[in-house]
Give the backbone structure.
Amino acid sequence: MAPSNLEAGIDTNQISPHEIRTDVEQAQEASDSQEAQYSVFTKPEKRWIIFLIAMAGFFSPLSANIYCPAINYLARDLSVSLELINLTITAYLICQGIVPSLVGDTTDMVGRRPVYIAAFVVYLAANVGLALQDSYAALLVLRILQSSGSSGTIALAISVVADLAPPHERGRYVGAALCGPNTAPSLGPVLGGILAEKASWRWIFWFLSILSGLCLALIVICLPETARKLVGNGSIRPKRLNRSVASCISESKASQTSPEHVDPPLRCPNPLSCLRIVFHKDTALVLVANAIFYMNYSCMQASLSPLLMDIYGLNALEVGLTYLPYGIACGVASFLVGKVMDHDYKVTAAAVGFTIDKTKGDDLAKFPIEKARLRSIWYFVSISTACTIGYGWTLQARTHLAAPLILQFICGLTVTGTFNICNTLIVDLYPDRPATASASVSIVRCSVAAIGVSVLQFILDSLGPGWTFTLFGALGAATAPMLWVEWERGMRWRTDRRERKETVQDEK
């Protein structure tokens, strides 16, 4: 027991009343200081959270692409046609577009952590089932279940970034969080080809089971709740379901003076919330431009294997390795473009005389965030257009294999830059519903990409690779006027939308 002041020989009459501060007062001051910050999570904690969500986002595109090298083996072992196996890919892509609309609204309502856990439980169970199944019906149903479990993780990742990072440094965090999803499509065929060739197609799903089980364990133990509607800037103690095992043990973030959680009203998830965002003027142009580049990316990836096999006579494993340049470029661009976005934000703020609040984060209502985010996108659009067209003609001319792979690498850099800029801008436009906004990106881009891939082979057969990728390059170039209109009028449209919303609320 600590001695009293008298026992310690201290004259309490000599102590100024201003120096006598209770533990409660000190805790209150600390709490007030925390409330003034955009996020109370430290930089190491933010980095760890970003690592976890990047790892989680790795699985949706990985699962879609790791499966492709095993198609022939699955058709043989299950005694079905390739057309039926391809139907399982179509079903996966359909779910990839639909599920985020449900996940986005749900996670904005109940928090990030419960949705992450539920998604990975479903995904893990589906992978175990896929590894054990022996019938086509089971394959189809479990692929749908697998897609349902993983497809919302990218929208979740973007929403977590919005929870943690203020606008002036959001670019680098978005880049880091999307590093996993951006590199997975290129790594998937390599891993799938090795596993299918050296072991069996079942080991593709056992591999995904083991990796996703590890990720689920890390999420359960370490991932804190970040949803600002539930925990504010992280200083509010969430309910037990939303607490990680580590936080329940240590209670380091939720001290006894921390405000208790507030339970939001629960309702049935509304997928139409995403569709409303799609049809707003200040978001529609960005969503369409992003979707066109995603379609170009998907068509380039989908055509790579058959084109290189036909033109250069490569085998399955060699073709798998040719996906790596694109994947490496996507990983590099994820980090570099994030820094470019943050630099553009600071330059734009200085140009308009806007003072960046590095503590509380900025109120974007009077800041031209559209001009800040789109400041450098013109370089990415123009270079991507030129390299996409050049890529097609190098294949048409049957040049050395290095030529299309170099152009593919440059396309990976520029297309990833476009993706990250558009994703970040969409979340900036809807700071109160980041997951729902991010889910709208998935709906539009998956729909447009599905149309492109469905007609890809017909166009290649009719026009050849040169004119096919010239067409895709022209579509990419057509996004420049769309983005210019957004750059010029986006803030005005955003202000009109906010004023209409405020008017409706006042009438209620």
Remarks:
- The two ends are 59 Å apart (CA to CA).
- Residues 1-15, 17-33, 253-257 have pLDDT under 50 and may be disordered.
